[in-house]
Structures are given as structure tokens and as C-alpha cells.
Design a protein that fits this description.
The chain has 427 residues and is α/β, with parallel strands linked by helices. The protein contains 15 helices and 25 strands. The radius of gyration is 22 Å and the shape is globular. The two termini are 16 Å apart. Mean pLDDT is 95; it is low at 421-427. It binds uridine-diphosphate-2(N-acetylglucosaminyl) butyric acid (EPU).
């Protein structure tokens, strides 16, 4: 039997939970160490499988990787000689394309496989390639590999046709050693973009304006190793906030930056949840019936698409009609079929879901269809009456550190079962 989570619903979450480092910052910062001369020490690294894959890619390329403790890693990429990312590892991960920008910057050449990642419909990389081309590179795509090369990278002005996190990051990486000034217009403003810019600046880069829609990068000659701590994961924090609301619990979410959670906090308050901000923690309490609402996902500082499945689950627990509109991805409602097994009444037309909230869900066997949808299934299971079993949990473990242990610490009745456990029982 494959591994799965088994949840007995109906137990309100209580207590405190500490949030780990941000996945989407970590998967950009780790490849960015390619740019440093000398070792980098990265703190607050989340212990998740996406990070493990990133570190394995670097190790296979010749980098020296040393875990200093559970969440601190020392990376020295001095010995990396070839600008090629092994296909077998890279193809599983969307963020492996950050090696394109980083390797292009250091070697004027990069070869990386076309990216994989969660399936939300078409996920083009035209804006990344447009940026590399503006800096003077040429690219070709053959046999599933992208090859980007330049004689010399020269700073340029790049206007992004869509607001994209990936292209903003890749162009920043490619531009740090480019001659002169690069200006990215219509840049994405997510907290992990600011975090990557702070990391690069702490290595000696000159990046200004990260967090606004115009980012300026003045090319420098050399970046050096640094010590840097990754920001807390806003999506992990938001997931626990919604889990507390869905179970009518009362929890303190620690090690967070409340400002990064503003859009989630505002929406929860509209749904009737009490949220109190402190310096680096946030308390979430739900002690009255949840209210229907409308949500539209948008680039930061809007409501994050990576919280869309979780908030949809919450709205099935409110009475009345709610509407959720996906503003980023073409096809991010695949999980709705799974929620229907739990009694949810949701109709989807393109990017719009109409939820006829009944105030409750019932436990059922379901599967995770991607990372955040998987987290949403866990929330649904925690709130539902009876037992929920969730398959395909490897999706969830790509992005949530110690999810089961953290939930148990809050009083949830959840366990991971599967092949190893069953064998143990048989012996
Ligand atoms: N887009 C283009 N052309 C491009 C790049 C993107 O048209 O060259 C479009 C996409 O199709 C999409 C929109 O622009 O419609 C936004 O895509 P973006 O590039 O911002 O997404 P991404 O960088 O591939 C990151 C996160 C996702 C998150 C999105 C949006 C990482 C590793 N992934 O993806 O996170 O949904 O930004 O915020 O940072 C997750 O963590 O579960 C996750 C999927």
C-alpha cells in the first residue's frame, strides 16, 4: 500500500506552531549560490523534498554541501565546472529553471531540462527567454533541454508582458554579472523576490527596487559567500491559519512576518475569523459560524494563488454561495472532484468556482492532485465528520516540513500510514 494520511476530523486545532523557511525563496536562493565565490551558509532552510532535490542537483554538479544542523546548510559551488543540470533530477522540478539564470550568469552558458512541476495547465517560459535574449543571450530547445549561451551579457531594459515570479527571478540571476544596468519592468513583487534580492545583495550584488514593479540591477564583477537566513513561508503560515479557522480552533502561528500575510488575514476577517497580529506571530480564532465570501487570486500583494485550494475548502464550511476566481493559472481547480467526494457542492466554469456552502463536509478517501490542493485536502479532512484518507501525499511533502507532526502538536488526529508502517505491524 502506498503511503497516505489518515485523518479523523472534528478536532479543533489548539496551541502553537512554528513556521519553517519559505519553499519558494529556498528554491531560488539555493541555485543562486552558483554565483558566489566561497561558501554560503543558508539558515532557516525548510526540510522538504523540493529542497532536497535542489541540493542533490548542486551536489551532482560538483558543489560541496554540508548540513550544519537540521535547517542550516553550507554550500560551496567553487568546484562546479560544467553549466549543465542533470536531466533526471531537473525534470521533476519547476524551480530547476533557476539554474538557467544562475549558470548563464557565471559561465555565459547553461543547459537545463524543460521544467516539470505541478500541473495547472500551460506553464510557458517565454518571458524568461525574452529576458535572457534582451541581455544578449541566444537559446535553443532540443530533446527536452534548453540551451542558453552568450558571448557577453550586457544590461538591458526588459518589460515583462505578464507578471511572473519565475521570470523576474531568472532575469535577476542572469543580470547580476551583466555589464551595466538591467531594468525589469512589470516585475513580480512576492516576498521571495525581495528575499532573493537581499541574499544576492548580501553577496555583493547591486539590486534596487525588489518588492516594487521596477527592479534595477547594476552588474558587478564578483559576488562572495555570505550567511543568510531565509524568510518564513507565507503559504505554510496561511495554510495553518485556514486549518485553525476550518476546525473552529484557536492557534498561535509563530516565526512569521505578519505583513506577508495581510491579504490572507483580511480575507479571514471577512469570513468571520478573529486574527490578531503580533511582532512575529499571529493568533487565529474561529468561534462563530463562517461567512460566505468572494476571493480572487492575484499577484502579490493580492490573495495568493497558492492559497486558493485552502480557502475554497474553508468556504465549503460557510453557509451560502461563495465565489472563487483564479487569476493566475488556467487550470487550478482539478482538486474540486476530490472535494465533491466529501460532500462539497462546487461548480467550476473555467477560472471561476461557485461554492454552495453547506457548513460541513464528510470524510472520504481522496487524493492530493498537487501540493497546495493536497494541503487543502488535509484541511478538509481535519474539518470533516469522520475519517478521511489522502493518497499521493508525496505532493504535500514537496512543500510542507513535518506537516503531520506540526498538526499533531496542535491536537489534530492525523497519522501517516503506508508500506513501511504496515511491514512493521506484520513483523
Ligand atoms: N507565465 C507566462 N510566461 C512565462 C512565465 C509565466 O506566461 O514565461 C505566466 C504563467 O503561465 C502564469 C503566470 O505567468 O499564468 C504566473 O506564473 P509565474 O511565473 O509567476 O509562476 P512560477 O514562477 O512558475 C511561482 C511559484 C508557484 C506560484 C506562482 C504564482 C515557485 C517555485 N513557484 O511559480 O508556486 O503558484 O509563482 O505565484 O516559486 C507552489 O508553491 O505551490 C507553487 C505552484
Amino acid at each position: 500500500m502506498l503511503e497516505k494520511y489518515v485523518i479523523e476530523g472534528g478536532h479543533p486545532l489548539h496551541g502553537e506552531v512554528a513556521i519553517s523557511g519559505a519553499k519558494n525563496a529556498a528554491v531560488a536562493i539555493i541555485p543562486a549560490t552558483i554565483l558566489a565565490k566561497g561558501p554560503c551558509i543558508i539558515e532557516n532552510v525548510p526540510n522538504i523534498s523540493d529542497v532536497a532535490i535542489m541540493l542533490k542537483i548542486l551536489r551532482d554538479m560538483g558543489a560541496s554541501i554540508r548540513m550544519l544542523d537540521k535547517s542550516t546548510v553550507e554550500i560551496d559551488t567553487t568546484m562546479v565546472e560544467h553549466p549543465v543540470v542533470p536531466y533526471e533530477l531537473a525534470k521533476h522540478m519547476r524551480a530547476s529553471y533557476y539554474f538557467l539564470g544562475a549558470l548563464l550568469s557565471r559561465f555565459n552558458h547553461a543547459e537545463v531540462s524543460m521544467p516539470g512541476g505541478c500541473d495547472f495547465g500551460v506553464r510557458p517560459i517565454d518571458q524568461h527567454l525574452k529576458g535572457f535574449k534582451a541581455l544578449g543571450a541566444q537559446y535553443s530547445i532540443d530533446h527536452g533541454m534548453i540551451d542558453v549561451q552568450a558571448d557577453e551579457l550586457i544590461g538591458a531594459q526588459v518589460y515583462l508582458d505578464v507578471v511572473t515570479v519565475g521570470a523576474t527571478i531568472n532575469i535577476m540571476l542572469a543580470a547580476v554579472y551583466a555589464k551595466g544596468l538591467t531594468i525589469i519592468e512589470n516585475a513580480a513583487k512576492e516576498p521571495h523576490i525581495v528575499d532573493l534580492a537581499n541574499f544576492l545583495n548580501s553577496m555583493g550584488a547591486e539590486i534596487m527596487g525588489a518588492g516594487t514593479d521596477v527592479i534595477k540591477i547594476r552588474g558587478v564583477r564578483q559576488l562572495y559567500g555570505t550567511t543568510y537566513s531565509i524568510i518564513p513561508d507565507q503559504i505554510e503560515a496561511g495554510t495553518f491559519m485556514i486549518a485553525a479557522a476550518a476546525t473552529h480552533g484557536d492557534i498561535l502561528v509563530r516565526n512569521i512576518i505578519p505583513k506577508h500575510l495581510e491579504s490572507i488575514t483580511a480575507k479571514l476577517e471577512r469570513i468571520g475569523v478573529t486574527v490578531e497580529d503580533y511582532d512575529d506571530s499571529i493568533r487565529v480564532r474561529a468561534n462563530q459560524p463562517l461567512l460566505k465570501s468572494s476571493v480572487k487570486t492575484m499577484p502579490h500583494p493580492g490573495f495568493p494563488t497558492d492559497m486558493q485550494p485552502q480557502i475554497t475548502v474553508l468556504l465549503t464550511l460557510a453557509e451560502g454561495t461563495s465565489i472563487v476566481t483564479e487569476g493566475i493559472w488556467d487550470n487550478r481547480f482539478k482538486y474540486v472532484d476530490e472535494l465533491r467526494r466529501m460532500g462539497a457542492d462546487i461548480s467550476v466554469d473555467g477560472k471561476v468556482a461557485v461554492i454552495e456552502g453547506k457548513g460541513h463536509l464528510t470524510g472520504a478517501p481522496v487524493k492530493a492532485t498537487d501540493l497546495r490542493a493536497g494541503a487543502a485536502m488535509v484541511i478538509a479532512g481535519l474539518a470533516a465528520e469522520g475519517i478521511t484518507e489522502i493518497e499521493n501525499i508525496y505532493y504535500i511533502e514537496r512543500g510542507y516540513e513535518d506537516f503531520v507532526e506540526k498538526l499533531k502538536g496542535l491536537g489534530a488526529c492525523i497519522k501517516k500510514v503506508g508500506a513501511p508502517d504496515l511491514l512493521e505491524q506484520a513483523l
